[in-house]
């Protein structure tokens, strides 16, 4: 009996050791000692710019029958896959967002890595935007390393559109809640495509001039809804339009507008960038009603960047979008609805750029950049478990701590605040509340001085999903996991389950304040 007990104790200790070792391996720091801390500025100088894009579509060899139209593959309900490559197994491409087990059936439109590289005053900055729900900081570092093998850039930023209709690059949307949906080959394709787009854009640089335009009113407010109180939006459309010095033809256009690209909603099984596809197409090729051109496009390469979308900025099937011709209201999730939404934004952007009273042109500009690596605590138990089991493939820089990063880039009259997740608009624009029922009993709102008010730029870009994917960044005075719930609701609001923890917003606000003030000095 003693021998058996001794054997069981040894077996238990060995099992615990193996479990601990496995957890340590999964959570190990992939880039120990890495820091992306940069501070530099330039004098006013001529500008060179280059744009490029690379396709990052997955292969979708197999399709399947969605008999009940719920977007979930259910073999137990009689649903079958069609073995397109005849290898005897279901090669599922799991789509990120909404729920698990949503394999793609086809590709509706091309997914892209779209890049812009600028050079002014001898400093080169490269930004690449991915049609993806997000990428972790480790994947961003991998892109930078690939770029550095071929060219030198003084700063590289990797931004995601946050489309909920592209392959899983995070791990949370696989066959089940316990199985990652990441395909390693596809992940490498995205990393390589992002790096290649940046290198190509750098090699295509030429003398350029830029036009800035913006509409900071709620003119486009009818295209986005807010699902969580307080109802605060990231209103505004901000634009950068680049032309060649030699002939005034278009190099590229940057369009910044804040909303979740999930208009196709949870039952869609076709790969798409959602409404950003129609924004970019409209900017590049123009807006049509049937066969009639109503606004000419600019040509070049269009980039869409997201903003402060926490809270939750989205367009649900309950929210109607008017068609471009004004004769239809689309409520049900559809490509027609996403098209109407994207084309409305593109049309407004094109008309803004052609309104000489609302634009500013520059042939020379100075730059200033401060970037900072930051350490954030991971209090979310589900994220801790996902890291320990390898469900999410990202390193932890310490015990339940993650390395992330922020940056503030000033270019001429514009400022760009790079945010590593989905920040609530009230932190960026004002309107933070401390409603009764918040989990910390906070009676006065925190982070009440909006980040945009700290920025002294004329054009204030808040770029969400930049260089990491840390989830929602929620004001601590609005944090609500436990009853009584905010605003006398009967349940906890959505957001906290997809956030690192309640300290994320206060920590990031402190770091953002410091780098913005540092740029002034």
Task: Report on this structure.
- This is Neutral/alkaline non-lysosomal ceramidase, N-terminal.
- It comes from Sinomicrobium oceani.
- Keywords: Membrane, Transmembrane, Transmembrane helix.
- The chain crosses the membrane at residues 7-27.
- The chain is an alpha+beta fold.
- It has a domain at 6-40 and 364-520.
- It contains 9 helices and 27 strands.
- The chain has helices at 2-27, 137-148, 184-203, 275-285, 335-353, 381-389, 425-429, 451-454, 504-520; strands spanning 38-41, 45-55, 63-64, 81-82, 106-107, 112-120, 123-130, 155-160, 206-215, 225-226, 237-244, 250-256, 270-271, 287-289, 292-295, 301-305, 313-314, 321-322, 329-330, 359-362, 364-365, 367-377, 401-411, 414-418, 422-423, 459-463, 472-473.
- Strands 2, 6, 7, 8, 9, 11, 12, 16, 20 and 21 form a 10-stranded mixed β-sheet that branches. Strands 1-22-23-24-26 form a 5-stranded mixed β-sheet, with helices on one face.
- Helix 2 links the parallel strand 7 and strand 8.
Q: What class do helices, strands and sheet pairing give?
A: alpha+beta
Spatial shape: globular
Q: What Rg, in angstroms, do the CA atoms define? A: 23 Å
Q: How many beta-strand segments?
A: 27
Biggest pleated sheet: 10 strands, mixed
Give unreliable regions as ranges.
none
If helices are DSSP runs of H or I spanning 4 or more residues, what is the number of helices?
9
Helix content: 10-25%
> Which band does the percent of strand residues land in?
25-35%
How many angstroms does the end-to-end distance come to? 74 Å
The residue-averaged pLDDT reads 97
Protein name: Neutral/alkaline non-lysosomal ceramidase, N-terminal
Transmembrane segments: 7-27
Keywords: Membrane, Transmembrane, Transmembrane helix
């Amino acid at each position: 009996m003693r021998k058996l007990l001794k054997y069981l104790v040894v077996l238990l200790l060995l099992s615990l050791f193996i479990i601990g070792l496995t957890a340590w391996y999964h959570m190990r720091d992939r880039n120990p000692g890495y820091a992306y801390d940069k501070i530099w500025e330039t004098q006013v100088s001529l500008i060179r710019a280059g744009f490029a894009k690379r396709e990052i579509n997955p292969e979708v060899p197999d399709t399947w029958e969605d008999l009940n139209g719920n977007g979930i593959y259910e073999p137990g309900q009689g649903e079958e896959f069609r073995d397109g490559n005849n290898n005897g197994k279901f090669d599922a491409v799991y789509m990120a967002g909404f729920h698990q087990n949503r394999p793609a059936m086809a590709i509706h439109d091309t997914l892209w890595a779209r890049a812009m590289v600028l050079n002014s005053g001898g400093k080169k900055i490269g930004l690449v935007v991915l049609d993806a729900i997000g990428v972790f900081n480790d994947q961003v570092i991998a892109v930078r390393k690939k770029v550095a093998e071929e060219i030198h850039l003084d700063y590289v930023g990797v931004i995601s559109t946050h489309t909920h209709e592209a392959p899983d690059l995070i791990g949370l949307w696989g066959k089940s809640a316990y199985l990652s949906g990441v395909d390693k080959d596809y992940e490498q394709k995205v990393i390589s495509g992002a790096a290649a787009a940046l290198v190509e854009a750098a090699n295509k640089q030429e003398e350029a001039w830029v036009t800035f335009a913006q509409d900071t009113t709620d003119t486009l407010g009818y295209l986005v809804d807010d699902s969580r109180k307080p109802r605060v939006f990231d209103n505004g459309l901000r634009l950068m339009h680049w032309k060649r010095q030699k002939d005034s033809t278009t190099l590229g256009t940057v369009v910044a507008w804040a909303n979740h690209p999930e208009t196709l909603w949870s039952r869609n099984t076709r790969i798409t960038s959602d409404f950003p596809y129609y924004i970019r197409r409209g900017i590049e090729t123009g807006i049509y009603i049937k066969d009639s051109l109503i606004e000419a496009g600019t040509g070049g390469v269009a980039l869409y960047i997201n903003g402060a979308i926490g809270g939750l900025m989205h367009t649900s099937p309950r929210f109607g979008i008017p068609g471009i011709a004004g004769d239809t209201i689309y409520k049900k999730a559809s490509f027609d609805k996403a098209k109407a939404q994207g084309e409305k934004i593109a049309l407004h952007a094109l008309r803004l750029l052609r309104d000489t009273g609302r634009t500013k042109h520059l042939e020379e500009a100075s730059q200033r950049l401060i970037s900072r690596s930051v350490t954030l605590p991971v209090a979310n138990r589900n994220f801790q478990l996902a890291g320990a089991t390898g469900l999410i493939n990202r390193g932890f820089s310490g015990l339940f701590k993650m390395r992330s990063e922020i940056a503030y880039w000033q270019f001429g009259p514009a400022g760009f605040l790079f945010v590593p997740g989905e920040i609530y608009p009230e932190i960026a624009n004002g309107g933070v509340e401390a409603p009764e029922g918040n989990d910390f009993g906070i009676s006065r709102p925190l982070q009440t001085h909006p980040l945009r008010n700290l920025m002294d730029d004329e054009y204030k870009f808040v770029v969400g999903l930049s260089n990491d994917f840390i989830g929602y960044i929620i004001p601590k005075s609005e944090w609500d996991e436990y009853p009584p719930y905010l605003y006398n609701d009967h349940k906890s609001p959505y957001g906290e389950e997809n956030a690192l923890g309640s300290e994320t917003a206060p920590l990031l606000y402190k770091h953002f304040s410091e780098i913005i003030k540092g740029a002034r000095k």
